[in-house]
Predict the 3D structure of the following.
Amino acid sequence: VDPGYYKIGENGAALYEASRAWRRQHDRLQEWRGGWICVHTAHLGRTDRKALRSRLRAFSLGGFKELEDGLWLRPDNIALTLHEIGRELNDLGLERSAVLFHASDFVHTSQEPVQTLWDREAIEQSYQAALSAMAESRATLEAKPLHLAAQETLRLGLAVVTSLDHDPMLPDKFDDTDLRSSDNQSMIDYH
């Protein structure tokens, strides 16, 4: 906005806020009662690469997975209304013409249960890896020169926060929520 002075633009504000949301993610959760938040996008097409990238980023940050071509879903354990969730997804890049709806029950003919869309083992391994890396870093930081300690905390903090930002925040049935809470609290302490 002035020489040497930069400001996040209007289009980047939602992504900036999403990148800072890791500290309060747990405040946004509620008990899962078996419902689903669904988004239909098949009518939006896939030829506009920029729109597709923005859509996929919004779904990734929102914890959505694609069940079938153009049908995305996540457990309804987010303590926001459908309109609020839609507004957040739109702000992150989902086209406004996407169709959002709540499903309380559905039958999917796939052999795999719906919860296998999210790789529980990989998610929990990322929690364990982050916890181990932060513990190891804390144990050795005092002995390192300040510039090396600063580099390490920046590099590790960025990796953990990125992982937390992309955490789908799944309910107990899908994820070890205690391990996730430990990971989140550890990062708050490490920060």
